[in-house]
């Protein structure tokens, strides 16, 4: 009886969610999305490690995450710098969750390290084969980030992932919308398996999008699946929530913010952001990069204005700190801005890049506002991914690679320069920077 009632609530919520989704789609015509991938049923021994991915866990440490069906499987990672020769061993923790009729496997999180920079490690999980390999990032420039948001699990996703695999990158950044499970919990599992070849070999740093929020009022916390499976270094960066955190790699300080948690002046996120920005040392990390899901500079009709509130609350902090680049997702298209602040181009603002074109089942967002705003430099509704190669403290090469059917075509490319050494970080903005130290 009780289960029946719960199922009815779930169906009702799903129906409502679909209704809102259709309301959005009605505003613009998306081209035919590609088919959702088919995952054949492929049972594995219950202690077999699945959905392996790695992420940063503080200086010189990496968190290895995997799932086993076996409840008694140990949260142990064995690792070393030559194949099948595990000189080190780390014990971690595990969690699991249930979502109505669904029960997750055992989700293991094990931190390994200290690790050498720019080194290939061989490892295995739960004392079981197979062996995986991961390369740690360099400690100095150059460093390359691959960036793609709104991935999902379609044939377009596969194409994007194939292109990313061909690029020599060190870290993957994902500005929200991972699996498009949308309440169907087993789709979190298929997504984990889909990305495993890439996500087990380079750190994947993610933040949440609307598709991570599987909220059912009173009954379910919106982010239970996401938080259980994609644990990010929030504790390591002084944050109280997995929905926002920061990390440093080579000379880059990266902040991952939450578009779907409180961001007003009195919120934890706002105060954490202010504290985190005021600790940034531009000598040590000349580049300052921010990611979140809902874009602030967006001239597409899709999701128009949705980022305005967060922008009003937080943009002054980012401006005061001299953020170089902001990456967002949400809109299924690509757009790059000039440096901008307060809705206008501004040489001391950030470059805003929308890269929500990873390839999910909803298709592309085609319609743009006319005339094109003066701050917008390049906009195109195609699937693809981005690469940010930071060469040194002042120069970075940004490129956007469109999926032309299954070929990747470098369609937008530009040299970006950091605000280091510019007027923006000296005299002129000292007044503005006060906001970071005010109580
Ligand atoms: C195993 O690794 C250790 C240290 O990483 C190394 O000293 C040793 O030679 C390796 N053994 C083999 C057989 O490769
Ligand atoms: C940084 O890299 C750019 C592009 O390769 C180069 O032109 C510039 O001279 C470099 N700057 C320094 C300080 O090495």
UniProtKB/TrEMBL annotation:
Coiled coil: none annotated. This is Purple acid phosphatase. It comes from the Eukaryota. Its cofactor is Fe cation; Zn(2+). Residues 1-23 form the signal peptide. Residues 49-136 form the Purple acid phosphatase N-terminal domain. Residues 350-409 form the Purple acid phosphatase C-terminal domain. The keyword Hydrolase applies. Its EC number is 3.1.3.2. Keywords: Glycoprotein, Hydrolase, Iron, Metal-binding, Signal, Zinc. One of its GO terms (molecular function) is metal ion binding. Pfam families: Metallophos, Metallophos_C, Pur_ac_phosph_N. It catalyses: a phosphate monoester + H2O = an alcohol + phosphate. Residues 144-334 form the Calcineurin-like phosphoesterase domain. Belongs to the metallophosphoesterase superfamily. Purple acid phosphatase family. InterPro entries: Calcineurin-like_PHP, Metallo-depent_PP-like, MPP_PAP, PAPs-like, PAPs_C, PAPs_N, Purple_acid_Pase-like_N. It comes from Olea europaea subsp. europaea.
